[in-house]
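Quick one:
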Amino acid sequence: MMATTAIRSATIGGFWLLWALPVLADTTIAVLDFELNDLTGLDGGAQERERTASVRPLLERALAETRRYRPIAIEAARVEEANAGFGYLFDHPEAAAELGRAQGADFILVGRLHKPSFLFAYLMANLIDAGTGKVRENLIVEIKGQTVSVTARGAARLAERIDAALRQSGADR
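Output:
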């Protein structure tokens, strides 16, 4: 009888927790696809484009796993419409903020995979406050190597830095 009551309580508590998780993640972050800035001149185009495309979903997953942030999607057509060319949204936070604000995001993350060497690359990201249009934090994470696991670890470190920046400022609500 006591075991049944404990299981019932745990089950009810577990259902409550699952129901409450979306409520806990109040802060919305729109993560745009990262741009590839490959300065090496080497022919690794398709592989590097694939690697760069993997950063956004890896980062969104890592942010969602904190249960403090809810990544929101912005349609590719809207991003393309707002983007005047390579690096435009990265260099124009007010334009990126307008895009995020129109989609209901609290923050928008605009990033690039900057590759000055075949040995290492940098995940560079501007965390922009969609309300003010100001860069809240400029983040850089070095990744050494070109494997999927190295890129995943880099995205996880970037998520940790985003979390730390927002928690420090109290913006994680």
